[in-house]
Amino acid sequence: MFSTFRGGVHPPHRKKYTEHIPIKRASDPKVAYIPLQQHIGAACTPIVNVGDTVKVGQKIGQPQGFVSAPVHSSISGKVKAIKEHPTPGGNTLCIIIENDFKNEIHESVKSKGDIQTLTKEEILEIIKEGGIVGMGGAGFPTHVKLSPPKEKKIDTVILNGAECEPYLTADHRIMLENSEDIVYGLKAIMKVLDVNKGYIGIEDNKMDAIEAMKKAVKDEKNIEVVPLKTKYPQGAEKQLIYACIKKEVPSGGLPMDVGVVVNNVGTAAQIAKTIKTGMPLIERVTTVTGSCIKNPQNLIIKIGTLFKDIIDECGGFKEEVGKVIMGGPMMGLAQYTLDVPVIKGASGILCLNKKEATIPKSKSCIRCGKCVYICPANLQPLYISAHSLKYNFDKSEEYKALDCIECGSCSFICPSKRPLLQSIRVAKREIIAKKRKQSK
């Protein structure tokens, strides 16, 4: 019996495009557009100037504040411009670097030692200076997540290998091809938090990954692989925690409130790479997939490479594209242009045809209750949405709108195709804006 959580939905997996395709390296870009904000929190300040020559791994963006993460050059070459440019999250200040293709590595990039000899403070500093953020898509600075308040006693670390979004297979391939790095990174996280118990949760539609990770941890007494029932959103933090260790995060709470820290398997693998080689987060594995892509692939892509270049490398579109999404179809961000760069949180580039991208016309709610039954956060989406659509955001808050994890399960299951997720997002935004205004 595989572990799981209450609620959830079963969208078509659509992983067959790439699940058996090994990771390969994409061509380096001629020009890299590196955003100074690729993370939750404050944007970085540029520390290079137009005309400067930079090297691979060189810090080019200095974080401002604790909740931030430095940005590094993914290529060597000359800084062509520092200006706003379209990115997956909107127009952002970018450092635009023209590649000299010398691939010169910056002097700071060297092995940082071994987790056996490094102190937990040293490991945390390596993670911070490496610009490592959550690579499942959230982009939360990892050093912040690994610095809980002293009153929050952490006793468990869980790695998210569920990859429950349809189409995406980047984490799947990392678990198959880089399992030892994942374990190494997990052990580094456990040392930083002074934790003796680690889990790796993986859905049962990836049995080969489950076996690969079990083999990688066979000599690790404190690490356990947890096979999970395939169901969306199994990879959401609160749902993953319940599925793995049966602890329930309270309403309005965080994983640390039940003594848990959750990280992505890709993040753990990057931590291992940064410790072993000194190379900061300058590239990532991204699944390029969908019905419109001629040759779907799992690619190691340099941060700053434009979507259009990656799509061309995969053979381009085989039919007219209806929508291009960064991430998966449930929680990803639709893009209005292909001139956006791959960022640290770009787990996927999903290209759908016109038919798949068409949004059905919504009808009146029939009070079937399906959205309530499947909501993994135990909410009543129909009421939160109804009040939001009437601009009654205080009422939406009473129905605990802020507990919504924005997984989109309610919109997926709704027979009337109501804009549930979209209207709930609006309510959350308005509620948070009001709270900020009141706090000032």
TrEMBL record:
Positions with a binding annotation for [4Fe-4S] cluster 1: C365, C368, C371, C414
InterPro entries to which the protein is assigned, alphabetical: 4Fe4S_Fe-S-bd, 4Fe4S_Fe_S_CS, Ion_transpt_RnfC/RsxC, Nuo51_FMN-bd, Nuo51_FMN-bd_sf, RnfC_N, Soluble_ligand-bd
GO molecular function, one term: 4 iron, 4 sulfur cluster binding
Cofactor binding description: Binds 2 [4Fe-4S] clusters per subunit.
Broad class of enzyme this protein falls into: translocase
Chain positions recorded as [4Fe-4S] cluster 2 binding sites: C375, C404, C407, C410
EC identifiers of the protein: 7.-.-.-
Domain 4Fe-4S ferredoxin-type as annotated: residue spans: 355-385, 395-424
Transit peptide among keywords: no
Highest rank taxon of the organism: Bacteria
UniProt keyword list: 4Fe-4S, Cell membrane, Electron transport, Iron, Iron-sulfur, Membrane, Metal-binding, Repeat, Translocase, Transport
Membrane topology category: Peripheral membrane protein
Compartments in which it is found: Cell membrane
CC annotations in GO: plasma membrane
Function: Part of a membrane-bound complex that couples electron transfer with translocation of ions across the membrane.
Subunit and partners: The complex is composed of six subunits: RnfA, RnfB, RnfC, RnfD, RnfE and RnfG.
Similarity annotation: Belongs to the 4Fe4S bacterial-type ferredoxin family. RnfC subfamily.
Protein name: Ion-translocating oxidoreductase complex subunit C
